[in-house]
Amino acid sequence: MSGQDNTQLVQQAYANFKNGDIPTLLTLFADDIEWELDETENVPFTGARHGKDQVAKFFDELSEEQHALQFDPQEFVAQNDRVVALGHYAWSVNSTDRTYESDWAHVFTIRNGKISRFREFFDTAAGAAAYQKS
Fold first, then answer.
1. Model confidence over 71-107: pLDDT tens digits?
2. 22: Cβ contacts below 8 Å, ≥ 6 apart
3. How far is CA 59 from CA 1, 13, 18, 102, in A?
4. pTM higher than the cut 0.90
5. Where would a tag sit more exposed on the chain, N or C end, judged by fewer CB atoms within 10 A?
């Protein structure tokens, strides 16, 4: 697939996520997808996941723990089998009623027309603080 095709795949994934259509989102992933967010203190859905079933659990945990106030992919850079998306989000944490926001970078690897790897970089300190219980 071309860089443009890969970017369109990633943009479709974001559209599915923002619309809450997780079943359709999961169809865009390879069965053996690798999914990783830095382990973050107090944030239960962070860390590494392997395979569609574990990634589906990630989205379940994410929606149980927090809800998006803002989620804006802003820029896409594609080269070979990779797409880097840069953006900004703001979340409200359900258990603490605190909010946090961060610029972020998402790195996607595309293999055979499916997303095979996802890596997120964000302000982990802001997330940890928002999850800190009083």
1. 999 999 999 999 999 999 999 999 999 999 999 999 9
2. 16, 56, 59
3. 27, 13, 12, 19
4. yes
5. C
